[in-house]
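Bug report

Summary: structure tokens for CALM protein differ between web form and batch submission.
Environment: batch mode, default settings.
Steps: 1) Submit the sequence below via batch. 2) Compare with the web form result.

Sequence submitted:
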Amino acid sequence: TKELGTVMRSLGQNPTEAELQDMINEVDQDGSGTIDFPEFLTLMARKMQDSDSEEEIKEAFRVFDKDGNGFISAAELRHVMANLGEKLTDEEVDEMIREADVDGDGQINYEEFVKMMMSK
């Protein structure tokens, strides 16, 4: 819950410990007590739809877009996921990029990010 709390706060949310535990229970499909990336995306998508605030989506995008160039690269995605305690192989990171990368440039732009968040 500590890492999730850190990420949620960086996205402008301020959940209590109990709310964090509820969030984990809500999306923790494999019952591991932790959230993997697909579960995290599901959680974020639900939160976004609850508030549906474009500002929050922009904020989430900025968390991933470390260098602020308007794109999420494989390296940036890997970095944020590592901070979430999710150690991914290059293959898994590439697969995640491919799933969201509509225009095929190998990175995720803001529009692709929004689509991905809204489609969950």
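Above is the batch result. After comparison, the two runs are identical; trailing whitespace caused the diff. The first strand starts at residue 71 and ends at 72. The mean pLDDT is 84.
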